[in-house]
Each structure stands twice: as structure tokens, then as C-alpha cells.
């Protein structure tokens, strides 16, 4: 069994985790989730313009942000509303008012912003929707129906722009203040949430990034601009992680991403020569990574691997990242999760399991029916573990990559006809990179994502929402 280790103390965030030099428009920025998003984007270095209906509130916020040295401007505008009524009590005027203010304005603002986003070369639209758009809820029927198809349509038509839909659950914001004061509603809603509590706007804004107060922050200066990122929420210092298949492709990228955020990482691979080469590279990069040879398709070797991890990390584990290929199986994912459970539980709340699945588990493909079946099962395993292990402080999520440039796809990507055909199915018009998958996996491990569990997140350039192919 090969084993090596390299140590590091810290690392400032690299350019992929910065918004320096970018511009942003955030509607409804003086309260709740919008307010939190303004501050998060500005801390990452973006120049932000926001709008609100209340001029006095806007002025108060602008003064606050100026005092925080955040680059934020603002103007008065009406962004959106919610009317809480039973479906039978809504008038036609209520319906039209909600639709025109919320959905019409979202579409029209997207139209107006399109030339500016296009001119930037890599624009991004993020809609803040609601879980009310995907599950039924009492008294908000008109509010609920407004969102679900717009981002998919824009994503396909916009091609090179990135469009996302964020669906917050019950979040503690000013608009929910009256509901939060009702102890019966609060208890019922907290009971429905796997994590047993109402969400926080300050946590939701991190998901919006798709990534402070008086706590320690990272400071990164570039071209006389500064970004300040809350180190407590955007750091894995002190965390212990196990990443399987870490010497190639997506697994390799995840090892480096987690280690750069400060985690102590142990990885495994079947090829000892490749593992030694990677460990030497990581040592030169001053990343804290250990490794061992292991075939995770073997139950005995999985048990030995977990005993080694238990020894290295003193009986605790914060992160389990599992990726399997066709030669291994779903059983290994389930068994490793079982073996890791006591270590994840011992580390306290915030532990995270991230399965690397595939869009093949979401849509059908020719020639890979068994592979697709295992990926679909893995997506469901993540949802089930999220429900069952939330009480132990363990979250479980899946990242489902599309066609990604990795050594495993090397021969396939040499076929120009295949690449052209696949890129044509992807709204963003290209094959993805392993680092782009690793960034999402890392986010799901960070404290910034502590209210995200049971989700399957596609990193596919929009392929799975493209109805034109």
C-alpha cells in the first residue's frame, strides 16, 4: 500500500472563485435573500447595482455598504411580490398583478439585459424562485406557478449565457416575519425540513453564487481592487475528506479543489504508480493529501480503506466523495457510505457525502443502459441518505456531470464528429472540464452549502434541459 503526505497551512482563493472585474444587477436587494446576495457578490469583488421599492430602505443599505467598502449602487424599482391567499379567494386582479410583477418582469428584464450579458462574453442569469414551484403549498397557488419553465427556455435560446434557477425552501427573511412568529407554523415547517430548521438568507446567497461580518476573511488584491470572502463559510480548514479515484479526471480535480480550500484529503486508486506520481505533484503544491492503493469494488479493500482513513483522521471524517466507473458498482457506494457513517457522525453537524453521478442517470442514452441504471440508483441513494442521516448531521448530494474532458473520455473526444454532435446538444456549446465539476462538488462540502441536501445537480452545460435535440 502506497502512502505519502504533504502539508500546507493556507491558500488564498484562485481566480475561479473571484468576481473581481464583473458587474451584477440584483433586484430586491434591501431585504432578505436579495440583500444577502448583494453582499456576497460584492465581497467576491463584483460591482453591484440593486433596486428596491422603498427609497428610504435603499438609502440605509447603500450607506451601510459604503461603510463596508463594498462597490454597490442602487435605484428605486419594483421587483416582485407574493400574495398569500387560498386559491378560491384570489381575484383575477390578484392573478394578473402577481404574474405581471413577478414573471413578466423577470422575462422582460432578461430581454433588456441580454445585449449587456452577451457583450460581457460570459453572462449569467440566476432566478430566485421557490420550492413552491415544484411542490404544492397552501395559499400561494398564483405565486407557485410563475417560475418553473423560464430558465430552461432562456438557457436553450441564450446558448452561451448561463441561466440558473434557485429554489429556496422556507427561509428566515423579512417577508416571512409574520409566519416565523407563529410557533405552530415554525414547528411544522422545521419538522418537514430534513435538517430540522428554517433556512437563513445568508446561507442561501452562497448557493446563488454557485459559491461577512466581523469574522476573519480572505483578502485578495488585484488591479487595486479587493475582494473580502468570509473565511468561516468559504473554507475547509480543519476538515477531513476521503475522495475515491483521485488520480484521474474529475476525482483528481476534486482532490485538488478540496485541498486548496484547506481540507486534509485522503484518496485512493488502483494504480500505485499513478498514485505516487500524483502524491509527488500535490506535495510540490503544498497540498495536504495522503493516498493508498485500493480497489473499491472489493468489500475487503473498502473495509481496509476505511480503517486507514479512521487512523489518519483520528476517527472522524467530514467529507466522503465517491466516484465510480463502469467496472465498479453501486454496492461499493452504499457500502462505503455505511462504513463512513460513524466517522461522518463523529465529526459533528455539517458532514457531507457527495456522489459523482452522471446525466445518464437523468436522461436516456443508447448503449449504456446498465451504467445509466446504476447512476440513477446513485441519485436516489443520495436522496434516501439525506433523509435518513440528516438527524446525524450528515448531508448527501449528487453531482451529475455531462460530457466532461477526462482521460476516460480521451478516445471519444478525439472523434470530431462526436464532439461536434455532443456540443450541438449543449446550450453552452462545448464539452465541460473536470475543474468545473470539482467546483460544484467543493461547494457542496463547504459550510456555505449547509442548507443543501438531497439534491442532484447537473453540471452539463444545460444539456438535460435542452428540448431542441
UniProtKB/TrEMBL annotation:
GO terms for molecular function: oxidoreductase activity. Pfam families: adh_short, adh_short_C2. This is Tropinone reductase. InterPro entries: NAD(P)-bd_dom_sf (IPR036291), Sc_DH/Rdtase_CS (IPR020904), SDR_fam (IPR002347), TR (IPR045000). Keywords: NADP, Oxidoreductase. Belongs to the short-chain dehydrogenases/reductases (SDR) family. PANTHER family: NADP-DEPENDENT MANNITOL DEHYDROGENASE (PTHR42898:SF6), TROPINONE REDUCTASE (PTHR42898). It comes from the Eukaryota. Gene3D superfamilies: NAD(P)-binding Rossmann-like Domain.
Amino acid at each position: 500500500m502506497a502512502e505519502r503526505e504533504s502539508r500546507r497551512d493556507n491558500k488564498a482563493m484562485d481566480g475561479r472563485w473571484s468576481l473581481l472585474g464583473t458587474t451584477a444587477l440584483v433586484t430586491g436587494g434591501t431585504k432578505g435573500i436579495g440583500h444577502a446576495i448583494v453582499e456576497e457578490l460584492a465581497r467576491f469583488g463584483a460591482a453591484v447595482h440593486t433596486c428596491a421599492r422603498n427609497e428610504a430602505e435603499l438609502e440605509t443599505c447603500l450607506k451601510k455598504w459604503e461603510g463596508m467598502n463594498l462597490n454597490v449602487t442602487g435605484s428605486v424599482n419594483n421587483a416582485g411580490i407574493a400574495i398569500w391567499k387560498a386559491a378560491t379567494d384570489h381575484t383575477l386582479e390578484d392573478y394578473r398583478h402577481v404574474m405581471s410583477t413577478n414573471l413578466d418582469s423577470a422575462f422582460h428584464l432578461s430581454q433588456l439585459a441580454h445585449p449587456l450579458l452577451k457583450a460581457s462574453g460570459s453572462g449569467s442569469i440566476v432566478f430566485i424562485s421557490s420550492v413552491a414551484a415544484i411542490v404544492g403549498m397552501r395559499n400561494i397557488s398564483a405565486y407557485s406557478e410563475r417560475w418553473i419553465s423560464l430558465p430552461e427556455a432562456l438557457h436553450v435560446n441564450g446558448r452561451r449565457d448561463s441561466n440558473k434557477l434557485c429554489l429556496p425552501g422556507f427561509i428566515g427573511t423579512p417577508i416571512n416575519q409574520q409566519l416565523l412568529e407563529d410557533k405552530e407554523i415554525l414547528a411544522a415547517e422545521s419538522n418537514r425540513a430534513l435538517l430540522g430548521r428554517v433556512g437563513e438568507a445568508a446561507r442561501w446567497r452562497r448557493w446563488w453564487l454557485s459559491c461577512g461580518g466581523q469574522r476573519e476573511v480572505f483578502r485578495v488584491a488585484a488591479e487595486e481592487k479587493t475582494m473580502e470572502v468570509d473565511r468561516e463559510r468559504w473554507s475547509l480548514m480543519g476538515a477531513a475528506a476521503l475522495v475515491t479515484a483521485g488520480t484521474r479526471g474529475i476525482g483528481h480535480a476534486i482532490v485538488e479543489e478540496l485541498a486548496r480550500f484547506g481540507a486534509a484529503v485522503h484518496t485512493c486508486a488502483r494504480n500505485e504508480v499513478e498514485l505516487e506520481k500524483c502524491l509527488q505533484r500535490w506535495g510540490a503544491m503544498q497540498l495536504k493529501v495522503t493516498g493508498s492503493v485500493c480497489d473499491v469494488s472489493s468489500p475487503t479493500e473498502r473495509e481496509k480503506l476505511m480503517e486507514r482513513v479512521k487512523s489518519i483522521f483520528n476517527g472522524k471524517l467530514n467529507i466522503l466523495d465517491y466516484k465510480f466507473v463502469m467496472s465498479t458498482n453501486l454496492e461499493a457506494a452504499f457500502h462505503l457510505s455505511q462504513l463512513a457513517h460513524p466517522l461522518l457522525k463523529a465529526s459533528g453537524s455539517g458532514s457531507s457525502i457527495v456522489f459523482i453521478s452522471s446525466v445518464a442517470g437523468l436522461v436516456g442514452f443508447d448503449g449504456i443502459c446498465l451504467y445509466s441504471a446504476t447512476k440513477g440508483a446513485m441519485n436516489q441513494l443520495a436522496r434516501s441518505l439525506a433523509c435518513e442521516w440528516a438527524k446525524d448531521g450528515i448531508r448527501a448530494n449528487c453531482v451529475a456531470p455531462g460530457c466532461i474532458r477526462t482521460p476516460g473520455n480521451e478516445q471519444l473526444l478525439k472523434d470530431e464528429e462526436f464532439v461536434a454532435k455532443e456540443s450541438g446538444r449543449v446550450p453552452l456549446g462545448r464539452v465541460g472540464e473536470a475543474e468545473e465539476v470539482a467546483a460544484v462538488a467543493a461547494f457542496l462540502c463547504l459550510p456555505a452549502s449547509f442548507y443543501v441536501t438531497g439534491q442532484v445537480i447537473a453540471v452539463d452545460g444545460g444539456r438535460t434541459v435542452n428540448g431542441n435535440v
